[in-house]
Amino acid sequence: MTETDRQTFYITTPIYYANSDLHIGHAYSTVAADALARFNRLRGRRTFFLTGTDEHGSKNEEAARAAGVHPQEFVDRVVAGILRLWERLEISYDDFIRTTEPRHKRVVQEVFRRFHEQGDIYKSEYEGWYCTPCETFWLESRLVDGRCPDCGREVSRLKEESYFFRLSKYQDRLLRHIEENPDFIQPPSRRNEMVSFIKQGLEDLCVSRTTFAWGVPVPFDPDHVVYVWIDALTNYISAIGYASEDPERRKLFEEFWPADVHLVGKEIMRFHAIIWPILLMALGLPLPRRVFGHGWLVLDSGKMSKSKGNVIDPHVLIDKYGVDAVRYFLLREIPFGADGRYSEEALVNRTNVDLANDLGNLLYRTLTMVEKFSDATVPSPVADQDDGLLRGLLAEVVPEVERAMDDLQIPQALEAVWRLVNQGNHYIEDNAPWSLAKDPGSRARLDTVLYNLLETLRAVGALLLPFLPHTPRRIWDQLGLDPGALEAVRLDDIARWGQLRPGTRVRKGRPLFPRIDPKEALET
Ligand SMILES: [Zn+2]
After folding, report:
1. Fewest 10 Å CB contacts: which of 38, 180, 295, 303?
2. DSSP string for 94-139
3. How far is the CA of 150 from the centre of ligand 1 (A)?
């Protein structure tokens, strides 16, 4: 089946660790997933978009103790903040899964029991160097100057009775799957990393802990809690009803599994490209179609992290610039799959150039001319006066946007839309409607030129639906269209030329994006 024949689309974000407020880097993953989900709805696919939170583990147990509250109360507070952020960014998720929910915990226990029964999980003793903040055991050979290779902190010798999962048993099958499905791990640079990691040989994975209690108990050995891998990763199936007692929820699983895209940050690629597929193989389930590892947002002071204290609060940016500008910047500026540089200056610049100048001016100038030369109503185009230029470009742009979104190349999809915007602005210069208006013999040509500009804006508004939550409605409203009708628009309709009815009154409003004074904005 080719990509364009598919009827359903299931996309997930990582589940974020519910330990503190999220920063702009987390917002980036979620906004990208949201754009892909909205795009697939626009193309008429039944879409399921899942996000959520990973809530167990010793870090939260300790943080709760320090705050003097029960761990559940602690994570409830953090999750409330995360939900507020998604609301402000207008994230259109279909479900939000929390690993502390009974519907999830039941599946984790079920899966753990099954692995144990079929011999994939066995009990043994683990001795090694343990980094408490990272919750990770390290082999002696992996330590750097006797310290944790991830965080550089001190490690301690620890001996623990644990359950282990036989990763090595599935190693060859996984390698074969990766070779036979070149799209499975993306981008290709990440695939190569994963393949060489697997080829070094997989060690069995420690999948339970007795060092903390805030987790899902191992059903047949309650001194142990299930460790993060099996607990967190199974969210992708528990949320859509895997092994559910409710037949309606099981139907959801039948419909949407396997996932089309697991979108993850590159630092958790190994869990999603190695551990998760092996767990699925052990369950006899098909593997996700694509695991896509995106890059990080990098500041001049390095990677954004809570411990460095250089995080950017997305709420502040939304207050200052509005949700559409923030989303546009994230989706347009950062090459998907590679690291991107974040700076507020770049955000201001993108907003001014792309949104205020290119897009905002195209709408404003067009409507100003329609008011002046066409009595604020949509004119009637005349067939023998039509150059077909913008209509032709639109017919090219729609499939280009579709290809780019299928390849998860969101910035390229926006570039394609902007080819249309920029061509619209050139079209105004080239045809100089103000000159045509001086010559009564050019009336038919003037009407046709204005109509073509309005139709281009109608299409641009609809094409922006996956990316910007407010701008499409504002554009359609100013064109005299019903913004509510955008909900029924499908990708295949957008290129159909001639949808604006002559005689409709336009409603020119405020500029879409007022120009930001960079000096003033960056000083506050
Ligand atoms: Zn560490």
Report:
1. 180
2. SEEEETTSHHHHHHHHHHHHHHHHTTSEEEEEEEEEEETTTTEEE-
3. 5
